[in-house]
Amino acid sequence: MKKIKLTFILLLIISPILSNAQSFGRIDQLGLNVGGAYYLGDYNNIPFKQITPSLGLFYRYNVDKRFSVRPSLNYIKIKGENNSIPQLQYNNITSEFEQNIYDINVVGEFNFIPYIPCHNQYTFTPYLFAGVGVNILQDSEHVFQLVAPFGVGIKYTISQNFTLDVESSFYKTFSDFIDMDYIVPTEKNISYINRQQYYHGSKDWYSVVCIKLSYSIKLPEKCVIYQ
C-alpha cells in the first residue's frame, strides 16, 4: 500500500514537469524578403537614389525571447553613374555601371521587447542586428569581398504562423571593387582607368530596405512560449 501511495505521489509531481516539457519548445522561422537597394560610393553620394531590386531567403534561429541568429542568402542589384565624379564630368565623360551581388551573411538580432513567434502576448518588437558576410560580385575582376551588415527592423506576428518584418540594412564593404573598371577607355579618361576606386579614399557602401515574411516551423500541436 505504501508503494502504491508513493508511486501516486511521484506521478503527481512528475506529470506537470513532463507536460511542460512537451508544451515548451523553440520556434524557428523560414522566410523570404523583397525590397530595394541603393549604392553609395564614387558614382553616387545621395541615399535612396537609383533604387534597384533585392530578393532573399533567410532562416531565423530563435535562441530565446531576446536573441536570434539569422543566416541569409540575398541577390542585390545596384547601379550608379558618374555624376559624383567632377573630373569626369568636366571632361564630358559619361559612365555608369550595374553590379549583381550575391550576398551570404549571418547576423545576430536583439529584440528590444520580448518576442515569440505565434504567441498572442509577445507579438511585436523593434530590433537591432549586426553580423558578417561575403559578397560574390558577378561583374567584377574581384569576385569576393568581405562585408559587415547591420541595421534596424520591426517584426510583428500577423497570424498564428506568419511574421512580417520591415527592415533597413546597411552593408559596409572593405574594398572599392563594386564600382571599379566601368569607365570605357578614351583619350580623355585613360588616366582614370584602374584607379577610379581610389578617387574618394573611401570604401563602397550599399543599403537594402525590405519587407520580410516568415513562416514559423518546428511547432508543437499548439503555440507555446519559451521556458
Note down, in words, how this protein is organized.
With 227 residues, the chain is mainly beta. The chain is 12% helix and 48% strand. It has helices at 2-23, 86-90; strands at residues 28-40, 52-62, 67-81, 96-111, 124-137, 144-157, 162-173, 205-217. The longest helix is centred in the N-terminal third of the chain and has 22 residues, at 2-23.
Q: CATH class, please?
A: Mainly Beta
| Main structural class | mainly beta
CATH topology: Porin
Percent helix = 10-25%
Shape: elongated
How many strands, what sense, and barrel or not for the largest sheet?
8 strands, antiparallel, barrel
The radius of gyration is 25 Å
Give a nutshell description of this structure.
The chain has 227 residues and is mostly beta strands. Helix content is 12%, strand content 48%.
